[in-house]
Structures are given as C-alpha cells and as structure tokens.
Amino acid sequence: MIAKIVNFFGDPTYRKRRWRLFIVVLALIAGADFLVPRAHVEFFWDAIPGWAAMFGFVSCVLIIVVSKFLGHQGGLMKDEDYYE
C-alpha cells in the first residue's frame, strides 16, 4: 500500500495524473470557500471568497523570492567548498 503511494508521487510516469489530482483538489477547496457563511467578519477582506488562499499563496511566493534574494544577492549563501 505504502509502496504504491510512494511510487505514485515519485514516478515521473504519473506526472499528468498527479497534476489532474492537484487541480481537482484545488477546485474543491476553492469551491468550498464559497459555501462558508461570512456573517460575522472583522475586516472587509474577510468577506471576500478565496481571500485566505490568495493571501497565503502570495505570502509564500514572497517569502521564497525574498529568501532567494537574500541568499544570492545579500551574500548569505556560500560556495559548496567554503569550509574546505
């Protein structure tokens, strides 16, 4: 059972099937967000369907971009043989 799961996520032959599964799960989660009642929100952006997912995605991308910038341009990343 576990070998099948590992093979599904590790084997390149299942790439198209994994991509379709990802799209279906993403559509289900985004669709479920429209079904949640928003009667008592504190901020106006909390009433926007999909706001939390969009904010989370943009924040994640921003963290990655800033980390890459600091590593490459900011001088935090060292060469592989730095300590040799």
Can you lay out the helices and strands and say which pair or pack?
Elements: H1 2-10, H2 15-33, H3 51-72
Shape: flat
Give the H and E element order: HHH
Rounded radius of gyration (Å): 20 Å
Low-confidence stretches: none
Number of helices: 3
Would you tell me the structural class of the helices and strands?
mainly alpha
Share in β-strands: under 5%
Mean pLDDT across all amino acids: 87
Helix content: 55-70%
| Number of β-strand runs | 0
Number of domains: 1
Biggest sheet, open or closed, and with what strands and sense?
none
- The rounded distance between the terminal residues' Cα atoms is 44 Å
What does this molecule look like?
This protein has one domain. The longest helix is centred in the last third of the chain and has 22 residues. By secondary structure, it is an all-alpha fold. It is flat, with a radius of gyration of 20 Å. Helix content is 60%, strand content 0%. The mean pLDDT is 87.
